[in-house]
């Protein structure tokens, strides 16, 4: 049985997370800044009556910052019974992969902190980085 993943883009790099971790994908909407929050925390937003913290995934992964566009989305994930929104450049597709298709993370230094990466999958001549959300959100600084 395969694993369903949502593929999204940050810059020109494709990333993915498991569908089971996602509550919804919404258009970018108004966000209220929170004073003294870490720099990768954009703020909070109102999602159907619930206040949800939102992070800039590019900042969290130390990637170059770009302007938000028409395709910018917020992926709302559920992690440890909490909802957290992640700003991404665009959402591409939902794919199904087999666990055996996941290649281990290369040991060389990469632009993205390797502890955030669960593995890498080749899909149609494209490499897709599988993120480990637990590490992205709860890594000890």
Q: Tags for this entry?
A:
globular; mainly beta; single chain; five-stranded mixed sheet; about 140 residues
User: Average pLDDT, to the nearest integer?
Assistant: 88
Radius of gyration (Å): 15 Å
Strand content: over 45%
What is the end-to-end distance?
36 Å
- Residue ranges: pLDDT <50 for 5 or more in a row? none
Structural class: mainly beta
CATH topology category name:
OB fold (Dihydrolipoamide Acetyltransferase, E2P)
Largest sheet: 5 strands, mixed
> Under the CATH scheme, which class?
Mainly Beta
Number of domains: 1
Strand order of the largest sheet: 8-1-2-10-9
Q: Would you identify the CATH architecture? A: Beta Barrel
Helical proportion? under 10%
Short description:
The chain has helices spanning 57-60, 133-138; strands at residues 3-10, 13-18, 22-27, 41-47, 50-56, 73-79, 82-88, 90-97, 117-123, 126-131. It is 7% helix and 49% strand.
Helices and strands in order, then pairings?
Layout: E1 3-10, E2 13-18, E3 22-27, E4 41-47, E5 50-56, H1 57-60, E6 73-79, E7 82-88, E8 90-97, E9 117-123, E10 126-131, H2 133-138
Walk me through this protein's architecture.
It is a single chain. With 141 residues, this protein is mainly beta. It has one domain (3-138): Beta Barrel (OB fold (Dihydrolipoamide Acetyltransferase, E2P)). The longest helix is centred in the C-terminal third of the chain and has 6 residues, at 133-138. Helix content is 7%, strand content 49%. The model has no long low-confidence stretch (mean pLDDT 88). It has helices at 57-60, 133-138, and strands at residues 3-10, 13-18, 22-27, 41-47, 50-56, 73-79, 82-88, 90-97, 117-123, 126-131. Strand 1 (3-10) and strand 2 form a beta hairpin.
